[in-house]
Amino acid sequence: MERRLAAIVCADVAGYSRMMGADEAGTHAAFKAHCGAIHPIILNHGGRIIKKTGDGFLLEFPSVVGAVEAAVALQRLMAERNAHLPAERIMLFRLGVHMGDIIADEDEVFGDGVNLAVRLEAAARPGGVAISAKVYQEASRHLSVNFADAGNFRFKNIEDTINVWAWEPGHSDRSHAPRTGSALPPQYRTAIVGVLPFVNLSDAADDYFSDGLAEDLIHALSLQSFFRVLSRNSTFGFKNGGLNARLIARETDATYLIQGTVRRAGAKIRVTAELVAPESGEQLWAGRYDRDIGDVFVVQDDITTNLCAALIPEIYRAEAAVPTRSLSTDLTAWDRFLRGLSHYYQPTKADYERSIALFREAIALDPGLAIAHTYLGTILLQGVHFGWIRSTRELWDEALRLAETSVRLAPRSSFAYSLLAYVNAMEGRYDTGMEAAHKAVELNPYDMGARGVLGACYMVSGEHQRAVEQFSIAAQRGNSDPRYQWNVLSAFTHYLLGHYDAALSWGRESYYENPNHLQGLAIRAASLAQLGRLIEAKEVVTAMLGLYPWLTVERLAGNIRWKNPDDIAHYREGLVKARIPSVRLTLVETVTQRLAES
């Protein structure tokens, strides 16, 4: 055995298992072709391949500068090769670099230098490079590229936290400005979610369904950027191990685990699932789905969509409830964002105002934190719909700027595109809004927010039946997410179709969730008036005026930019029938009082 100091580069392909599942032969051939193109870069920087795995490799370099330069050159070459490929064939490597003592035994290498390089690879973003602080200190002054401090990470089986520095495509030489950020930098995605293999309670022949369901759920959850999702290889090894959730979490560093069962009886199938916090043993969410087996893939996709729509808001809630991560009073951008998120889940005006302030503080501290921009834009528009903020030109302009910034910072975020679509559609830019909405659905077909925003684009364009279809899907599957008010939008769409009973029913659902929702109360009043139930409509209007004394028909309908003028006239008609004031009553009373005094 030989002990020596070396720089180690660890590489693997992001999403390799999914790609192999879709096209085994093509993925293997592509991987071999990429490795052939990469090999000259390794040699030119003095490196050698010390181990190959099915989806990656380990490299050894005598020079730490050579190792980092080779890693960056490799990723740049891969970016060029991927630029000419369709999305489903793009192959992205993650690279980790560390230097330290290694032990060489024949063709194998061991030691902390190898172990940490492997851990760093997991911290890198697809297409990027993650290096330890030790590597950065040794190599940074000799490099022409700019690495950004990604924060401190705690890795499995590593006692101390490791300061990580990161480079991604778009990081150029030092003359360029610092990176604007991605959807969510690695140090912010603090939660790690593991999907365990679903337990098949029926015949072994049904394993394909339970395994396929877990794999699809891993893929669906990975399309968002708020938390990290463990790969299939990380969790399926525990399929028959008999370990409890807490031990599995400690082995995988999972913050949350999703587990479930599949049971089949004839043509029926039942799926149960739960989200647990392993360290405390708390069950955060549980659900059950009964389906006719029919087309297996259709059923599997339906259950995956429902699970994804239910689980993501619960993980957001759980993370928002976590105590501040910063050990000092100087809160980070991420701490402020999470605090804002925790207030966002409290449906009061005071919490709403506090969340806005915290989101603004997070953006000021880190302008590249895309998710803070998207949430801020979303909550500002919700404030208008709730009646807590006046709809002004300045507010809508700010919402558009936030949406455009979100998309620029997070071009793969369906949430960002959903906000962009909604702002444009409500402002009367129907084609732009529709294009962005379709893009959001394309990026993440499991995102019920994107589905609902597509419905909103149909509604403002006058395609109400198509809007109803999208709202129904979004409301049924994603009704626990406070970012979206599908009940209110469904009520509006049914009203515009002349289905006043259905509009009233949806408006009632909105009332149960938020009895002070301005738009929800307005559409209830208009629907009751159109049904001739004027006494009930008057009661609703009286309650509205008690909450919003400034309320007038013009304030409710004056800024609406629906494509079809008849839709706007139809809504105004209902508001007038409900006896909502046309002008401010306080102004009329003041004028009358002055006339009497004179």
Averaged pLDDT, please? 83
Instruction: Give the amount of beta strand, in percent.
Output: 15-25%
Main pleated-sheet profile: 8 strands, mixed
Helix content: 40-55%
Number of strands: 14
Instruction: List segments where confidence is low: pLDDT < 50 over at least 5 consecutive residues.
Output: 171-187, 325-329, 585-596
Query: What does the oligomeric state look like here?
Result: single chain
Supply the helix-strand structural class.
alpha/beta
Total of DSSP H or I helical runs spanning 4+ residues: 24
The 3D shape can be described as elongated
Give the N-to-C terminal Cα separation. Answer: 107 Å
- Gyration radius, rounded: 27 Å
Overall description:
The protein contains 24 helices and 14 strands. α10 packs antiparallel against α11 and α14 packs parallel to α16. The chain is 53% helix and 16% strand. Strands 1, 2, 3, 4, 5, 6, 7 and 8 form an eight-stranded mixed sheet that branches. Strands 9, 10, 11, 12, 13 and 14 form a six-stranded mixed sheet that branches. The chain is an alpha/beta fold.
